[in-house]
Amino acid sequence: DDNRDSSQADRIQHFRESAIAEGYLCRNIPKQYGGSEQPADALRGQVIREEFDAAHAPMEPRGIGTMMLVPTLLDRGEEWQKEKFVGPTIRGEITWCQGYSEPGSGSDLASLMTKGEIDGDDWVINGQKIWTSGAKHANYMFCLVRTEPDAKKHAGISYLLIDMKSPGIDVRPLRQMTGSSEFNEVFLNDVRTPKDWIVGKRGEGWLVSRTTLKHERNSIGGAAQTLSLLNALVDLAKTRKIDGRPAIEDPGIR
Fold it and tell me: Which residues form the Acyl-CoA dehydrogenase/oxidase N-terminal domain (predicted)?
């Protein structure tokens, strides 16, 4: 029930806060933004992740925000952006989606057409994004927008942050053949975001996006995550049955 779910969430949050205080989680994030600020030690970090996984202990909240946006802000964000967004993101209080791909801009991302123009103290954004994971439930989006229409395509893009509750945002889930709807179309019609909600300088969004993608590659290549998925798959094969026998005994499954 709701009370049980709330109690479980509170216990997980308390555990994470204690683990941060002891230096086990959010090791590369400065203390002033809610991390534990530990010395760089890849081996120690890997051991911690493997031990936490073996104990089924909560790690940092997974998601685009913690894996991609937070390290991007630490590398390239303004001080106020770090203070406003990093802590709530690593605590799981806010979630993010990524506004990159467009219907005509997938592999050639720099050809994107979503545009942003300054109007007073705001950017006004118009365009469409597609294959946006988690957009239906995200609180914010980090978004690539063409702000310099006369510049060469890679030089005309800015990296903006957008509140997903802003008027003019229409999120439409894309139903997959599995029946789920993890991906979405996002339509932006005269969406306004403050003009200082830009990461990096105007027209340097492509450079900032490369920082984000670097951190994405780092996050999906971890051995601990792969081992965790493999162990979960083995456990599933042990419990599911085919013709009355555990699936793991089937040569095709093995």
Answer: 16-93
